Amino acid sequence: MTRFALTYEFDGTPFQGLQRQKHGPTVQQAMEEALFKVTGEELTLLSSGRTDAGVHAMAMVSHVDIEKDLTPFRLMEAVNAHLRPNPIGVNHCEIVSEDWHSRFSCLGRRYLYRIACRRAPLALAKKRAWQVPANLDADAMQRAAQALVGRHDFTTFRSTICQAKDPVKTLDRLDVEQVDGLFGPEIHIHAEARSFLHHQVRSMVGCLKLVGQGTWEEARITTALEARDRQALGMNAPPHGLYFVEALYPEGQK
Amino acid sequence: MTRFALTYEFDGTPFQGLQRQKHGPTVQQAMEEALFKVTGEELTLLSSGRTDAGVHAMAMVSHVDIEKDLTPFRLMEAVNAHLRPNPIGVNHCEIVSEDWHSRFSCLGRRYLYRIACRRAPLALAKKRAWQVPANLDADAMQRAAQALVGRHDFTTFRSTICQAKDPVKTLDRLDVEQVDGLFGPEIHIHAEARSFLHHQVRSMVGCLKLVGQGTWEEARITTALEARDRQALGMNAPPHGLYFVEALYPEGQK
């Protein structure tokens, strides 16, 4: 038995999220079906992160234990062939040790949230960014975001169905920048932490958007955080602007 | 009667090109139908460029003459509302003089061609770039491209159904660069000319790709050009990597 780590990109639009569910197609199901076609084995894919319906990934990392003798390159090529026409692409595959775990070995997760400030509906970035028909003040958003960095009780920014035992998390980075995107100006919000609560990034982005458009004073982010109450949340940003960017592991592992 | 110039983005994937045709949906048809819903007038949209099925536009410029009294902002908002769910977004609208013409006043056109060099199928940039499963030498492509810049007979790089009277065109710019795209490394090819022949950009890109992968020597671009023969063409790049980027007009006009 060999443990393989796979790094793959997906467009979350047609999926009910990453994790296998009773209803609707998921990324895990598509991956496991492709793996079955390659190996003939009923495999379970374990992943570094979970993503909601509509959320994308640039480089999700998962692992799987396979009996069949395959090189990483051969596995990657065959899985990609069988994944079609699903919008999933495996960019990297390697053999890892049997005590390496995509979720438990992971030291950090990075997310990106894209906002396109314009009145016209998105055509080329449709379902790839949140279109907001107002000019947002990225500097004010960046200042306000810093109140969330560090170790806090993030109950306000947590889904009511979040299953984490503890609402206390350490947010290592939350940076807002204005960028010149290929299809026009965008605001990018970069979030990094060891782990996140369910809906945490989208909840933080939703409140920062209210700051950016002037509906919320910058200080209200702190008030919302300190309330430790979901009722203090301004709004949840939609899933299609969110990307799982990277899973971080100890050097030399994976 | 007022002449309006509209600048709009579109995803070319679901369309049989820009220009109205007997069969299949086109961008022009979608735009004219939205304009009819707003004005009640049977209008003809005239455009700075033509694009093939699957080719995208970041900023196509078209004009239309309208009887109904409308501000540019009101027209843009209403057209965008009626365009849904077509992947077309009008980003700019203004009143222009009656002797201004989106096609005949246009002094130059800019195109971008995107190539993603990777083995995995594209997920996030699916139908937005040409996936090539080889590492292309962008420097060799850039050197080879310079042989095409200037005034030449581009018969080799011209579709057999091209309707232009003269195959001689002046290519002002053809630059190849390696860029760090949001979803991974890409090669971008920038082309600029007063006007292009049918399939010219895609034909030039197809041959440059052969240079980039080492199938063609750099000098073969010159041989192909001098042959003035479609048979000397290496290959046509697919439409979905191509973007109409900008139409250039005399300063102060539009």
Automatic annotation (TrEMBL), chains A, B:
GO terms for MF: RNA binding; tRNA pseudouridine(38-40) synthase activity
One Pfam family named in its UniProt record: PseudoU_synth_1
Reactions catalysed, as given in the entry: uridine(38/39/40) in tRNA = pseudouridine(38/39/40) in tRNA
Organism of origin: Erythrobacter crassostreae
Binding sites annotated in the UniProt record for substrate: 111
Gene Ontology biological-process annotations: tRNA pseudouridine synthesis
HAMAP family the UniProt entry points to: TruA (MF_00171)
Keywords: Isomerase, tRNA processing
Protein name, as recorded: tRNA pseudouridine synthase A
Enzyme class per UniProt: isomerase
Active-site positions on this chain: 52
